[in-house]
Amino acid sequence: MSGTKQASENSITSGVIWKQLLIFFFPILIGTFFQQLYNTVDTIVVGQYVGTNALAAVGTTGTLINLLVGFFVGVSSGATVIISQFFGAGDGKNVSKAVHTSMALALVGGLFIMVFGLLTSRPSLELLGVPEEIMDDALTYLNVYYAGIIASMIYNVGTGVLRAIGDSRMPLYVLIVCCLVNIVLDLLFVLAFHWNVFGVAFATVLSQVVSAVLIMLRLMLTRESYRVELKKIRFDRSILKNVIRIGLPAGLQSVLYSISNLVVQASINSFGTDAIASWAAIGKIDGFIWMVMSAFGIAITTFVGQNFGAQKYDRVKRSIKVCLGMALGTTIALSILLLVFMEPLLRFFTGDEAVIQIGQRFFWVLAPSYFTYVFIEILSGAIRGAGEAFQPMLITCFGVCGLRILWLTIVVNIWHTMEMVAMNYPVTWVIAAVVFIIYYCRMNWLRRCIRRGGYPMPENL
After folding, report:
1. What is the pLDDT of residues 311-360, one digit of tens each?
2. For the purposes of burial, counting CB atoms within 10 Å of the CB of 357, is it exposed (0-12), middle (13-18) or buried (19 or more)?
3. Which of 5, 379, 421, 452 lies at 20 to 30 Å from 137 by C-alpha?
4. Region 118-146: what's the mean pLDDT?
């Protein structure tokens, strides 16, 4: 079957846009829900059956893990864009090269993260100012997670490949299995074996191994152009160059996000263990809103990539507008629900009244402002899908990350309250969203991508 036929069958380059977006979006959303549930189960089990200190220990490791993993997932996202463009253009030969290059990137990146992470875990936690009473548990979780990171990288890259060619269902099925495995192992290792934080970390690693194996089987057993053959896993120089051109800015953006979140975590740590535990619970709850925005962002990146490869530029612009409208409506609705149900949601994670009160104060600042981030997520994803990644990275890094660090180091030092920590989010989101809207509307990014691809310039641009 040719790439062109495949592209027409997945309907990303044809059909009613809102329907095709939803068909592609919902498996991503449900899959991301299971990903969030997968992570949330760790927090619930630790918080309810091990204690507040263990909950704080697991919570404080998240930003460190995201710092390294996010960089390589960001870089590999360049392969997803390249694959979607080749697939939309019906270029099966280059689809295959890009797939095997991305797999090589997963293996090399995973090995690097494992070694670097294990060597730097304790100094990193000390630099964060993690309290001594939770240091051992935090170190245990971090080291076990890093030891199994290669499986996580294979899963993430393999999922990116499938979504690039329009398959958002298989990643969903894999995540459901992975989540169920994680829940069973969490309960077994913590409640039956009493392995506490080590048990939660080990359950996470084993479930990631299961997901990596299932994704690889899907890619190795297909007969299509995106089939993975182990003997062909290597870097193609020209493909790798384009992957890095698109993916490196995304990776650097992820690193700067993580660095700014480390500054947030360090600021939270200064308020004590109750604040750290509350922040861990907050992260799991608002993760369900982030997963919606992220799913729309992934969907529009693939939509723009395939339609750009097919030179359907009007469809590119229409799909962005439709996706933006759907994402805004959904995010606003979820924000309202969060404000109504935030107390019972926090009680899922802890019965500590002080921890719950801190979480409620934070959500009163965060929930009304989530919708502003939709513009950043959708517009940056769309522009990256066309092949331009550097400028969106600059806007996000300076408009969000840079301003966040300034806010935390200047404003929070003057008014040292949890509310002031929380305010860094709406302030930076609004500024970055305004810049993105202006940048997108000028359309210079699309003209540059068309010229770079060697395509004829349409008259209406």
Report:
1. 888 999 999 999 999 999 999 999 999 999 988 888 887 778 888 888 88
2. middle
3. 421
4. 89
| Best CA proximity match to 367, nearest among 257, 298, 286, 307 | 286
Within 310-352, residue ranges assigned H as helices are 313-347
Going from the C-alpha of 39 to that of each of 164, 181, 267, 278, 406, the distances in angstroms are: 25, 12, 23, 16, 30
Neighbours of 423 (CB within 10 A): 18
Q: Which residues contact 92 (CB under 8 A, 6 or more apart)?
A: 2, 3, 86, 225
| Rounded CA separation 370/334 (Å) | 9
pTM over the 0.90 mark: no
Phi-psi region of 454 (alpha: psi -120 to 50; beta: other; left: phi over 0): left
CA separation for the pair 228, 81 (Å, rounded):
18
Would the pLDDT of 4 be above 60?
no
What is the DSSP code (8-state) at residue 192?
I
Evaluate whether 2 touches 90 at the Cβ level (below 8 Å): yes
